[in-house]
């Protein structure tokens, strides 16, 4: 594994590791808030945080595994492990939502006014601030490093923040109106939002497992790199791309003169590879050189 590749995975690995003790801290804070108040909404919030802890451990394991270099059994690397982790994160979010639904529905038929609400709210706000800052950090860093597992972990924690905001609103309304039913009602609304967020994360992660192509902007950057650095060739066709976590795989056919020496064609390939890797960091290329006159299988890009 190259130094650059190792460095690219060091930051996501470190953040994923720190997420585990942080999730345990937030869980402890929320469990304390629930014990003090007896609020079903705060219990729902704590239940989601339990899922957060499990999911954070899973994300860390996936990021460590994805950083492993290619081997005989996984010759294109282990990058897709992050997508598997992100799918698990999405499932965990859905499970958390279902747990909240169950607790809220039970409380809906027998609502009770929570006790010591102000203490519970204050403690929950502290936990939410911690989660909010960390979720923003994970999502921003995960997108920069193209780490689906880190982004998924951040999105999971962000749903926890949204849950906490809903809990605070619900308890505040219950306290202001004297109607305890607002506590489980807000828990139900929060659960619905969490369920939707989990479904979205699963859909995005499954897309990665299905070899989704690079974005339009990335493919345009590839075409520009080819156009600017393919002097000596006569065209390119069959450009194909796919994304696997932080890695990008790119292949295309490079058309050259029939009488071009192999060494000269190789030099063109080296130049193209360097330019494309600069435009798309973390990319792996496969360039098929073919002589003029072969009928292209895809859209051809003229270089001259």
UniProtKB/TrEMBL annotation:
The species this protein was found in: Martelella mediterranea
Keywords (A to Z) from UniProt: Cell membrane, Membrane, Transmembrane, Transmembrane helix, Transport
GO cellular component terms, semicolon-separated: plasma membrane
Recorded GO MF terms: cadmium ion transmembrane transporter activity; ferrous iron transmembrane transporter activity; zinc efflux antiporter activity
Domain of life of the source: Bacteria
NCBIfam families for this protein: CDF
Domain annotation Cation efflux protein cytoplasmic: ranges: 216-292
PANTHER family: MITOCHONDRIAL METAL TRANSPORTER 1-RELATED (PTHR43840)
Record-given protein name: Protein p34
Gene Ontology process terms (BP): intracellular zinc ion homeostasis
Similarity comment: family membership: Belongs to the cation diffusion facilitator (CDF) transporter (TC 2.A.4) family.
Subcellular location: Cell membrane
The keyword Transferase belongs to this UniProt entry's keyword annotation: no
InterPro entries assigned to the protein according to its UniProt record, in alphabetical order: Cation_efflux (IPR002524), Cation_efflux_CTD (IPR027470), Cation_efflux_CTD_sf (IPR036837), Cation_efflux_TM (IPR058533), Cation_efflux_TMD_sf (IPR027469), CDF_Transporter (IPR050291)
Transmembrane segments annotated in the record for this chain: 15-34, 46-66, 86-105, 117-139, 160-179, 185-202
One of the Pfam families matching this protein, by short name: Cation_efflux
Membrane topology term: Multi-pass membrane protein
Residues of the Cation efflux protein transmembrane domain: 20-210
């Amino acid at each position: 594994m190259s130094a650059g590749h190792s460095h690219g995975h060091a930051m996501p690995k470190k953040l994923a590791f720190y997420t585990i003790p942080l999730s345990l801290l937030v869980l402890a804070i929320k469990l304390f808030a629930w014990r003090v108040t007896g609020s079903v909404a705060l219990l729902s919030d704590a239940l989601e945080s339990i899922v957060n802890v499990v999911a954070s451990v899973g994300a860390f394991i996936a990021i460590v595994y994805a950083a492993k270099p290619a081997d005989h059994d996984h010759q294109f690397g282990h990058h897709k492990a992050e997508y598997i982790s992100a799918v698990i994160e999405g499932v965990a979010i859905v499970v958390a939502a279902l747990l909240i639904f169950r607790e809220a529905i039970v409380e809906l038929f027998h609502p009770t006014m929570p006790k010591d609400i102000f203490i519970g709210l204050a403690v929950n706000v502290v936990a939410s601030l911690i989660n909010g800052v960390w979720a923003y950090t994970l999502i921003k860093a995960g997108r920069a490093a193209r780490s689906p597992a880190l982004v998924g972990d951040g999105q999971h924690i962000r749903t926890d923040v949204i849950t906490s905001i809903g809990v605070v609103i619900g308890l505040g309304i219950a306290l202001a109106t004297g109607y305890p039913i607002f506590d489980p009602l807000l828990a139900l609304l929060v659960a619905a939002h969490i369920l939707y967020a989990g479904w979205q994360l699963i859909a995005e992660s499954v897309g990665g497992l299905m070899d989704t192509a690079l974005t339009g902007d990335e493919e345009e950057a590839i075409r520009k790199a080819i156009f600017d650095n393919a002097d000596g060739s006569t065209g390119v066709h069959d450009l194909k791309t796919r994304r696997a976590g932080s890695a990008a795989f790119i292949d295309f056919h490079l058309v050259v003169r029939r009488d071009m020496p192999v060494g000269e064609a190789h030099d063109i390939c080296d130049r193209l590879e360097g330019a494309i890797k600069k435009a798309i960091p973390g990319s792996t290329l496969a360039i098929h050189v073919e002589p003029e006159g072969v009928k292209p299988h895809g859209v051809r890009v003229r270089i001259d």
